[in-house]
């Protein structure tokens, strides 16, 4: 996953203080993006926005050994390709897509970077929740893309779907919300506010833990997850 931010240096200060991340400046061929590490292992990236009209957001990427057939299925299922396949240095190939309701997600064909070095522990990825208006339609669309990963016998509990109105105002557009594991959700929210963020949704209980939704000091939303 990565965050597209107006000010990457400010993002380093915010997320470094909140999650204890350290940052590795990539080679010049990768632009001005930086890789975030936790105890030396990659957990996320911060990327500068190239167009001020673009939203300030966190994006989750699904691993795709070959994105070409998935791209075809995105279109066949009523979705859109937001940004076609593009190489990211020697790390891999990325595609940005949107589902039929407009929620944006990425596809990632790994080369030099397979994905998370750490997850399901404090300061690292813990869950991706799709907030949608039609969960049955979402299951059909994403099931056509990632059936075995989501619904198969070896499915991993990393991705859920829920109606937007369960947590957000009904007019909120469908979207993905990335969750970072923390030891105590309330303390993490207080720390985010002290760093210039704001609480979008106070802590609430879910089947996968206690969740609070935060907007960082540049406008990107994410969640903290206490298990």
Automatic annotation (TrEMBL):
Entry-linked SUPFAM superfamilies = Glyoxalase/Bleomycin resistance protein/Dihydroxybiphenyl dioxygenase
- Every copy of the VOC domain together lies at 1-110
Give the matching InterPro entries: Anthracycline_SecMetBiosynth, Glyas_Bleomycin-R_OHBP_Dase, VOC_core
Superkingdom per UniProt: Bacteria
**PANTHER family registered for this protein in UniProt:** CONSERVED PROTEIN, GLYOXALASE-RELATED
Q: What is this protein called?
A: VOC family protein
Annotated source species:
Streptomyces similanensis
